[in-house]
Design a protein that fits this description.
The protein is built from 2 helices and 9 strands. The longest helix has 10 residues. The radius of gyration is 15 Å and the shape is globular. The protein is mainly beta and 129 residues long.
Length: 129
């Protein structure tokens, strides 16, 4: 019997200084585990340049991998080696696990926000119905 309940849906919030991006999480065991880890208070990370294509950081925990050969686009957020997260602002091809995707974002907007060198990023969840 359908009681008309709506299941809450998590959105990943990427907070960089005074800018925020919202990402849609993927439907896989890696993203589900990431949601469980972030559920309480989120995580603040120091991210560094990754191959002129994104920003990377080490996670404090391992996540299950669902690697596939993909070519990223600006806004893709991927898991690498089970314990690294990368926010891509350019194309990159490798065996990665898709975690989330920032919609309607350009390479230039991400570069302007993430900048050169290290950047502090907070990721947390907002729930909607």
């Amino acid at each position: 019997m359908d009681l008309g309940y709506v299941k809450p849906v998590p959105a990943l919030v990427i907070d960089v200084g005074d800018k925020k991006f919202y990402a849609t999480l993927k439907a896989n065991s890696s993203a589900e585990a990431f949601i469980q880890k972030l559920n309480s208070s989120g995580i603040t990370m120091d991210m560094y340049d990754y191959g002129n294509s994104g920003k990377e950081c080490d996670l404090p925990w391992e996540l299950p991998q669902n690697d596939e050969l993909i070519t990223t686009i600006p806004g893709d957020i991927s898991l690498y080696q089970g314990n690294k997260i990368i926010i891509y602002y350019d194309k990159f091809t490798d065996n990665l696990t898709r975690l989330a995707e920032i919609g309607n974002v350009t390479k230039q907007k991400l570069l302007n926000t993430l900048g050169d060198g290290n950047v502090t990023v907070k990721m947390y969840l907002e729930w909607s119905e």
